[in-house]
């Protein structure tokens, strides 16, 4: 289904709004003009009634039968009635037929009021009348002054016709203006769309043209360019990750292949075969650990790392890690010591936290020296799990990138390995809502994870 272009939709919405506004304005104008014409008509009748009432006070002077300047022939008229509703005097052409009922005559003897009639004798047009009490020769009479609404009707008809002509023309012009303005406003968006269509992964650094309009379109352009920067950075990280992972996998695979080929070609005794198989087994373990690390990082990037959170005793957690690395520490003649945690509990996933702490202890045994110390402290609802050693510490320039993927250094603490150990530590810490830190102390290196404490 083809959607209507946004330019046409904007123009249609603008036209609809303008049609409503023009209709409302036209109706209001029509009603206001009609109200002003009614007010002017009432004022005209009041003036005529006042003049005729003043003329009635002159004794012996005829009021209406003579040609009176106060009554326009063919448009206005007047009648003089007594208290019984009998016509005493009347202007042409209405004759002597009373235009008021007995009830209206009685009301007219007391007060002034206006009446509307659809038609009157001799003037087959709608008219308006003013009924007012007067006194002539000592008698209370009723004076009726009326006029047709022909002028009012003609004026309103003329106004309505002009509105019906001018309104559609104004709506057409407004719609055309809305269409042109919508096209002008969407022109920068179309330029950005055309440029976006040309941007590919093979052309990094390309950006959308941003108009200097200081409005939503300019902000949209900046936001999209920032999004492109983030996507390029993410794509570059993925490419680097794949390249580094391929490099790290190639090394143990090459060593494994060499060991196996050497055993096949040159091993002559059972002992030589055993040594080759043992070295191959070490490389397979390294490959398996590297694959596990890469899988964990990939799951983290997709937000799919699963945790089984539970309260864990810090003492028990540290003791488990110390027991796991006890044999390596004895071989290296480097003791592992645990500081009492005094009932500190951490909220976390046992398997993942053991993996993170195991990486820290492995790094300390592999690259550090002296005693490896494990400790746990609690502060402001957070638990810090520290692993320290008595070696030379991290190179100062390496501290900021120690937790980056495949980050390694040529000095003692970075020889060997794939450069994923500390990266895995940070991934696990952040999955728990915590952080990972590394620092140099006076006695060596200190690496720790900061995690939420158990309630």
Count of folded domains: 3
Q: Reading side by side through the largest sheet, how are the strands ordered?
A: 2-1-5-4-3
Level of helix content?
40-55%
Q: Biggest sheet: strands, sense, closure?
A: 5 strands, antiparallel
First-residue to last-residue Cα separation: 57 Å
**Number of DSSP strand runs:** 12
SSE string, helix = H, strand = E?
A: HEEHEEEHHHEHHEEHEEHEE
List unreliable stretches of 5+ residues.
411-416
Structure description:
With 455 residues, the chain is an alpha+beta fold. 52% of the residues lie in helices and 16% in strands. The chain contains 9 helices and 12 strands. A 5-stranded antiparallel beta sheet has the order 2-1-5-4-3, with helices on one face. Helix 1 packs antiparallel against helix 3 (150-198), helix 5 (270-301) packs parallel to helix 9 and helix 6 packs across helix 8. The longest helix is centred in the N-terminal third of the chain and has 51 residues, at 6-56. Residues 411-416 have low confidence and may be disordered.
Brief characterization of the structure:
The protein has 455 residues and is of the alpha+beta class. The chain is 52% helix and 16% strand.
Main attributes of the structure:
alpha+beta, 455 residues, five-stranded antiparallel sheet, 3 domains, 9 helices, single chain, Helix Hairpins, Heat Shock Protein 90, 12 strands, Beta-Lactamase, 52% helix, rod-shaped
